[in-house]
Structures are given as C-alpha cells and as structure tokens.
Design a protein that fits this description.
The chain has 317 residues and is an alpha/beta fold. It folds into two domains: 194 residues, Rossmann fold; 107 residues, 3-Layer(aba) Sandwich (Rossmann fold), CATH 3.40.50. Helix content is 39%, strand content 16%. The chain contains 13 helices and ten strands. The strands form two sheets. It has a six-stranded mixed sheet. Strands 5-4-3-6 form a four-stranded parallel sheet. Helix 8 crosses helix 9 and helix 9 crosses helix 10. It starts with a helix and ends in an 8-residue tail after the last helix.
C-alpha cells in the first residue's frame, strides 16, 4: 500500500451529517438528516469512493497496475474509476455497453481524458460480464488486470460502505439508501445499529431480485439491522424520469441547497417523503438519508430535465 493510496482514502470530516428543516417534515413530526457522502471527493464521491477503497488498496497490495471494469455510457462507476486511476497511477480499462459514438458524452469524455481505454461491446457480449470464460478472454486480451464487477460491487465494496457508520455519532430510527446492484445497501445494513431499520429504495424496474442480491452479500454477517426493500419508486426504470420526480428534486434543492441527481438520490428522497406523508414513518421518528453522490451523471440529463420542467404534469405536492 503506497502512501499516495493511503492519503487518497483518508478524508476525515469530508462527509458530514446535515440536518434539514422544513414545514412538511415538522408537520408530521419527523426529524431528517442527510449523510453528505456526495462531499467525500470532488470526482470520486459517495458510494463510489467507499466501494473502490478496499478494492484499490487490494489491487495495489497484490501488485496490479491495471484496473478493468464494466459500465454503461453514463456510468458513475466508470467515471470514478477513471478519475481515481489517474490520481493513483493505475492504467484503467472500461468495457462499455454500447457503441463507440457515445464517447462525446460527459462521462466517457472525462474517462478518456483520464487515460482510460474504452472497449465497446454489444449488449449480448455485455451480458457475459460475470462469466468466467469471458473474464478469462479479457485477461488474455488485456493482460494482468484487477477486475472489478459492474458498479464496483463485491464483498470489498460492502466493507468500504459499512465504514460510513464510523462517521455517524447519533442513532436513527430509520435509514434510507438507494439501490442499483445492492452492494451499497448491504454495506449500510451490515453495520447499522440494531435499533435502526434500513429502508432500501430500488431504482430499477422489476428489482425484486435485489432482495436475494443483498441477502447474498450479508450471508456471512452474524447479525444485521432489520431492513426492507421498496421496489415501487423506480419511475419507469433505471434513469427514467417523470415530471413529478423532477419537480420534487427541484423543490428539495431550492429549499435545502443540497444537489441531487435524478437516478438515485432524488428517487430515494421522493420515497422517503412519500412514506412520511403516508404514515409509514411514524411521528417522532429520526431519519437518516444516505446521499450516495453520483452528481456527475446529471450533466448528461439536463436536456431531459429541461423538457420535463415544461410538462403539464410538472409539480409536487
């Protein structure tokens, strides 16, 4: 482990717990705080910083100089891996689902500027990203690579996410986090206080499979907090937006000056507010929401956001 790697993953106080107040929450008797993991690092923020930490330290300790991983054209993980690879002097390779013409988007342009080599594959090939024979082909083609799964999601990622509890001094009744692959949720659940219920908001359509994914990550954990998965707040699917979701996000940002992105954090907070209003969060509850970062992905969605702000159904309340 080099001093550079050690220093990169030491950012004490960078992700504070920020309390927010507004009449709606006060009317329902709910106290809300946001764990500002979006502030962890200007490039590698939120859960990506935590999920990469022990993977990159392991790669360095095992003598790897090249990192290879998988993602879509707007992947927060690919963006983060390229950035940290440049800062820690790793060669990086991204296996990207889609065609090479998408390199002009902000995510892949940034990845290329950091020196990441982009390898584009069709959807059928991309679906093989977990197959041992395909991974062996990639190792043969690209050489000695430390391979990270899509989203950086593995047991080391869960270990890194769990550390966020070392930065939370108070006890909460409920904790909310968004979920795409389940590793972040598993990390939050694995180290949450026993008195806390973790509520996982799936951002994918048809995400019932995440119950099994999360349980698999927790398989070796002796005891965990209670948790529930809610899969009805996907707004049509991953990266799908509606006028109501955008209106909620705009309202929240205007009130609290906390930036959100519509794929994960806005959906998670929308679900939280919906459950406050429906009584699923009882009066007197203390709630913590995990801001998982991902703000870089918003740049590629601005045109869609502007269009939805003009929609007749734009509005929240």
């Amino acid at each position: 482990m080099t001093h550079l790697a050690q220093t990169f993953f030491l950012r004490p106080g960078a992700a504070p717990v920020q309390y927010i107040k507004e009449p709606l929450l006060q009317a329902y008797g709910v106290e809300l705080a946001i764990k500002r993991d979006d502030m962890l690092h200007p490039v590698v923020s939120g859960n990506k910083w935590r999920k990469l930490k022990y993977n990159l330290l392991a790669a360095r300790e095992q003598g790897y100089r090249t990192l290879l991983s998988f993602g879509g054209a707007y992947s927060n993980h690919i963006h983060a891996l390229a950035g940290v690879g440049k800062q820690l002097d790793f060669t990086t390779i991204g296996v990207i689902r889609g065609e090479s013409f998408v390199t002009d988007n902000s995510t892949l342009s940034y990845a290329s500027s950091c020196g990441m080599s982009l390898h584009f594959v069709d959807r059928a090939t991309y679906r093989r990203r977990g197959d041992a024979d395909y991974l062996a082909e990639l190792q043969q083609g690209f050489g000695h690579c430390y391979m990270l799964p899509e989203g950086g999601s593995n047991e080391l990622a869960v270990l890194g996410v769990a550390e966020l509890w070392q930065e939370v001094e108070e006890v909460f009744d409920y904790v909310y986090t968004a979920a795409g692959t389940g590793a972040t949720a598993a990390g939050v659940i694995s180290a949450a206080p026993a008195v806390t219920e973790v509520r996982v908001i799936a951002v994918l359509k048809g995400a019932g499979f995440l119950r099994q994914e999360i349980a698999g990550y927790l398989n070796n954990t002796v005891e965990t907090a209670d948790w529930q998965l809610f899969d009805e707040y996907h707004f049509g699917g991953y990266a799908h937006l509606t006028p109501q979701l955008v209106a909620f996000m705009d309202r929240f940002e205007a009130l609290h000056q906390i930036p959100l992105e519509p794929v994960y954090t806005a959906k998670m907070l929308y679900a939280l507010y919906d459950q406050v209003r429906s009584g699923l969060i009882p009066a007197g509850s203390r709630v913590l929401a995990i801001h998982t970062g991902g703000l870089q992905g918003r740049a590629g969605m601005e045109l869609a956001l502007q269009r939805l702000r003009k929609h007749p159904k734009y509005g929240y309340g």
